[in-house]
Amino acid sequence: MRIGVLAVQGAFAEHEQMLRALGAECFEIRQRADLSGQMDGLVLPGGESTVMGKLLRELGLLQPLWEKIESGLPVLATCAGLILLAERISGEEGRHLGTLPVTVKRNAYGRQLGSFYAEAEMKHIGMVPMHFIRAPYVETAGSGVEVLAEVDGRIVAVQYQNQLALSFHPEVSGDASVHRYFLRMCENRII
Ligand code: GLN
């Protein structure tokens, strides 16, 4: 299993550590040439979505990644990664990859609640520790989008075919269950 981790900005190293601990091989995506080898899955980490989106465009990565996701490459997107995937960003004009039919709200928890911790049931997985860091949430989910978890009535995890997208940061929790589930998606890729 060879997983590409977008490494232009943000919390990519923690994902690599967790995936390697589960036996996957990881490589970092920093430029177009990095996309030429075998890739069984893609991780879009947390960070700052405006910066990452800008770098994806400047580095010529936006279009090839869009094509790979559209053709079924399994993707795990966390926090800013969820914003990169979203079809619509609440209150903003533009979008980045736009492959996930949801509307996300950025920095959705206000100043005081910028960062917090919760535990919640995640469909297909079980109880999951969730670290939220200036997190977005999913305001509306389009048809075909499966809601996997909610916290305080807000959608924080969704799956749409090959795309698994989370508001929170599973890579900092020490709990590998979300990454294990993602690697199963990569193994079972059928699309
Ligand atoms: N607030 C960031 C954004 O809007 C996301 C935060 C994160 O990835 N931890 O892109």
Describe the structure.
This protein has 191 residues and is of the alpha/beta class. The chain has a single domain, classed as Rossmann fold (3-Layer(aba) Sandwich), CATH 3.40.50.880. It has five helices and twelve strands. The chain has helices at 12-21, 49-58, 62-70, 80-85, 177-187; strands at 2-6, 25-29, 41-44, 75-78, 86-89, 100-105, 115-122, 126-133, 137-141, 146-151, 154-160, 163-166. The strands form three sheets. The chain has a seven-stranded mixed β-sheet with strand order 2-1-3-4-12-11-10. The radius of gyration is 15 Å and the shape is globular. The chain starts with a strand and ends with a helix. It binds glutamine.
The named CATH superfamily: Class I glutamine amidotransferase (GATase) domain
By secondary-structure content and strand pairing, the structural class works out as alpha/beta
Tally of distinct domains: 1
- What ligand molecules are bound, each kind once? glutamine
CA-based shape: globular
Q: Do you know the CATH architecture?
A: 3-Layer(aba) Sandwich
Q: Describe the biggest sheet?
A: 7 strands, mixed
Distance between the termini: 17 Å
The number of E-state strands comes to 12
Helix proportion:
10-25%
Order of helices and strands: EHEEHHEHEEEEEEEEH
Seen as an oligomer or otherwise, the chain set is single chain
The level 1 CATH classification is Alpha Beta
**Rg (C-alpha, Å):** 15 Å
Strand numbers in spatial order across the main sheet? 2-1-3-4-12-11-10
User: Mean pLDDT score, rounded?
Assistant: 95
The total of helices stands at: 5
- Ranges where pLDDT stays below 50 over 5 or more residues in a row are none
Enter the CATH topology name. Answer: Rossmann fold
